[in-house]
Amino acid sequence: MSEPVTFLSRAEALIGTHEAEAVESGIRNFLIRREAAFEVFEIGEDLRDRTRAIRLHALANLDRLLGHFADRMEEAGGHVHWAADAVEARQIAAGILARSGARLVVKSKSMVSEEIELNAHLEEEGVTVVETDLGEFIVQLAGDTPSHIIAPVMHMTAQDVGRLFADRLDVPYTDDPIELNRIAREHLREVFLRADAGISGVNLAISETGSLVLVTNEGNGRYTTTAPRVHIALLGMERIVSRWEDAAVVLETLARSATGQHQSVYTNVITGPRKREDPDGPEEVHVIVIDNGRTDILGGDTAEILACIRCGACLNACPVFRTAGGHAYGTVYSGPVGSIVTPGLHGMEPWWELPYASTLCGACEEVCPVRIQIPRMLLQLRERAAAEGRLPGWLERGISRYGRTVSDPAKWSSAKKWASRLSAPISSEGWIRRLPGPGRGWTQSRDFPRPAKHSFNEWWRRNRAT
Amino acid sequence: MEGPQVQLFVTCLVDSLAPEVGRATLSTLEKAGCRVDFPLEQGCCGQPAFNVGLMDEARTMAAQTLDVLDGTEGTIVVPSGSCTAMIAHHYATLFAGSDREDKATRVSVRVRELTQFLVDDLDASLTASCDGCTIAYHYSCHGLRELGLEHQADRLLGDTERAALAGDKECCGFGGLFAVEMPAVSTAIMDAKLDRLEASGADTLVGGDVSCLMHLEGGLRRRGSDVVVKHIAELLGDVD
User: Fold this and answer.
1) CA pair distance A69, A238, nearest whole angstrom
2) How far apart are the first and last CA of chain A?
3) What is the pLDDT of residues A110-166, one digit of tens each?
4) Residue A422 near chain B (CB below 8 Å)
5) What is the spatial distance between Cα A78 and Cα A75, in angstroms, rounded to a whole number?
6) Residues of chain B contacting A404 with CB distance shorter than 8 Å
7) What is the mean pLDDT of chain A?
8) How much is the pTM?
């Protein structure tokens, strides 16, 4: 029956900590910069509409687009692998690395690699994996997990990073971001040159040409996918569009919505391995198309969440995310989008509680550049959780009793009288300082108004009813 | 000239916890020239059950409200953006395919939130008054995002002294049963809001939803704050 609410316990442990403060100020600074950029790079209603239409069209034609993509990619000399779940995806990646004798792997940022827990698996196979996105590099160095889909170290301050670098990289302490950047770059440059293989995510695949598009602001994506002999790209199977024109629209929306940029600094397009005339590039390109629960989502009432372009705007807008931070969600995809994606990918147990980690304020839907109806889907998942009997007993019984009472005028009238009478001994000045039972949650931080001696209904009957 | 006929749906919270807001709403509507009736058998819009996913229970509550309101004439006015949005936007889905489907459609188009009705429908010349107050206004989320309520309160409060409240369109952390299910998170969001409220220089917090307001007032009381909390109807109507 009722399990302890794990989101809540994680959130309780995080609220008020240094990490939560870092998230709050991180998001504030982020939004200030993004807003400043928005004055120049606005996401107009038209751009939202076009982006939504493109993404929904892709989802409706996913089989065809993926099939065509795979044909074109293979024509260009790439290899396409299909992974039904995380285990298969990891095995395929490990197999490719083993066959090519790769021992050192550089990685550019990939949420799907976090989803399938690739690093830990490859390390077990004796492969050294080095994250090259600055945020992911810091997270890896700290033995931590990313807390935000586009800003993995949202939960750390520059001082935290400075101490980490001093401790782990044997450099003098500094909290100057530019200097920290330089330290990371110097450290990574040497790794890039030695790496046997590169693993990347994919922001978008383009069906018509069999191309992969990767955007980064640091250039590490380009380095990862061109310097080593082997490139493995992990493609979440929904991350595809039909045509180049579609990709241009989605990338514009992504850059504007994620970081307030007109375009990301590096936009990398990969269509197969190095050709004879190319000055550089990998000898082998492998694309692993990963399902891992996506087909299930596609067939259900939260299919629309697969239209997400992973801009992270809903995380920044969410009051719950801003308060508790990404780690409270206990999963790779946090925030409003994650609360829909996670139970979809990994099942309701134990993730059914995430859809309840929301006030349903609607700020996520308001900011979403794809107009994804996030609150509607949170409600649908709540409905599913309730139908599966997962709600705490007190909540279900309480609501059921309240429902029967309030819908019966005689019972409702008497309940109001009793509530007022019974609350008299625990009230002062019309407020209750301590409620019993589940009401304790309210009164641990807030007074609760005492039920009125005379309800409005009673007042009307006495003074107005004819 | 005879004013418009209005049905007052006060909401279960106003009925049981804040009847003075119901009386202020009644007074406001009468000042605006309306003939107000109050269907006595009304209860709850069903949102508490709907928002936790208990759809049968939500239908039980909503059915009573629907049956009572459908038998009446005129605009249904509600002093809550959240309960208005529940009826206006979710009843059709809740009763889709049932024998109440037509009723749900009929009632949902008759429902208006108080400030929406006063400004958008009546173009009423009422203005809020609060002598000597400096007001911060909290735009509750459901009214703001599901009904587009924003300029209505601004216009009604046009003659009052307003303090700038940072984040006045961000959630207060109430979230219905969320406030009880996840009290630590709800409280942390509320605390951020109350910190900004206290920094704003306002001595009166005004809003359009008793639900958010009782959460914020409960938190202010616990802080020992002197900030007074009012529903906008209490600044529009004559309060006894």
Assistant:
1) 12
2) 50
3) 999 999 999 999 999 999 999 999 999 999 999 999 999 989 999 999 999 999 999
4) no
5) 7
6) 60
7) 94
8) 0.95
